Amino acid sequence: MEITEELGFSLKQFMTWFEDDIDLFIQVGAFGDQDNARRRLRMLRSNGFNQSFVFTDRQSQATLYRVRIGPIADVAEFDRMIDKLRDVGIEETHLIAD
Asked: What would the mean pLDDT of 4-26 be, rounded to a whole number?
């Protein structure tokens, strides 16, 4: 699995480091323009990613609209989602623990 190569540990191991109250998400874009985030959200939902949403991040100097999917239940769901995202042309993703 690619995430193991990038991070040096598996997603399953990563998930065991946290209490049950942490949620995992896949971030599939961060945009300075809200319309771009909305377009990505529409594309995701039209491809069956019904758990997708836009998180408005006002903590940095400029507001960012982060498009995320989740929460992700387990490693198997994460793997399925990454494969499906690649099928629709989204290669760059980030695992978010919140």
From this structure: 64
